[in-house]
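Our consortium's second objective concerns turning raw sequence data into structural hypotheses that experimental partners can test. To show how far this objective has progressed, the report includes one record in full. It was chosen at random from the queue rather than selected for favorable results. The single chain below, 359 residues long, was entered without modification.
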Amino acid sequence: MIFGAGTIGRLGDVARELGFRRVLLVADHGMVASGHVDEAVEPLGAAGLDVVRFHDFEVNPDTSMVDAGTAFAAQEKIDSIIGLGGGSSMDCAKGINFILTNGGRMPDYRGYGKATKPMLPMIAIPTTAGTGSEAQSYALISTTDSHIKMACGDPKAAFRVAILDPALTVSQPRSITATSGFDAIAHAVETYVTTKRNPMSEIFSREAWRLLEPNYERVLNQPDDLEARGAMQLGAFYAGVAIENSMLGATHACANPLTAHYGTAHGAAIAMLLPSVVRWNERAVGDRYESLFKGTEALARRLEELAEAGGLRVSLSASGVSKQELPALAAEAAEQWTGTFNPRPFDQKGAMEVYEWAY
């Protein structure tokens, strides 16, 4: 991990060190409009590298977008990949790498460790402080037909280097700062209590929370504050490391069906659900919540304050979710992989309770 304002200028040297020669730059159209693609291409060109660009994908990349990127990359004879942008860019980069090097389709890689052949080396350049994808070996790719998110992971899918340049996050809209930042906060909270947690993940969960909790409001109120931006970026990265070591829980399990059926932004869905999940988990991990932030109820209320500061809706009813749909959503939530790591055993009944509490 390379951190600091202006570190994107080191991209060419880092890529050349890793042996990159012909690079696929995966970045969405927003990165083109913001000028960040040009900021990446310039040092790559100065280092003598060839760059081909793929931009034809959207938020929550699906299997058809990954297929399109793979077909494009195959024609260009690339030897390396750079993911520039938010989690969508980095997930799409990983997805392309899976299929380009190992063949098949994205569903073939659902789960972990299913890539049998070497994968291309990659660099991540996050422009948001949110998903922590730059620190993880998983790609989250939605199915084109059902919009269900698949977690596809393999040790070979990890980025070789992550360049964290807080100056790149200044251009993002306030709404993205709010939703992505709250997602990172949720990662810190959830990873701290999962059944898979371990001493390594706990270190990163706590450090992520220490950086994210006080700086979330600060960066919303002072968007040009690079110190706060940097703290959020580091916090999101550390939370991503924690996910890699401990996974997530019921909040993400309940959020995914909302995104699939209502198009709710991931971070907004997380903000609606996390306080309720914290309260629901109290009987299992109340002592851990107390060691993180003054106890279960205090933590839940603080999370509600942060969601309000970000302008995120704090109830499902306010976001237009139909109460009649809750049973179907709960059934889907119970099937989500992340729910299996929740500290309190999580099933359809539990998901229904969480949705009702958040309604």
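The partners drew two points from this record. The beta strands are 2-3, 22-26, 50-54, 80-85, 111-112, 122-126, 138-142, 149-153, 161-164. The chain has 14 helices and nine strands. Both points have been shared with the crystallography group to help prioritize constructs.
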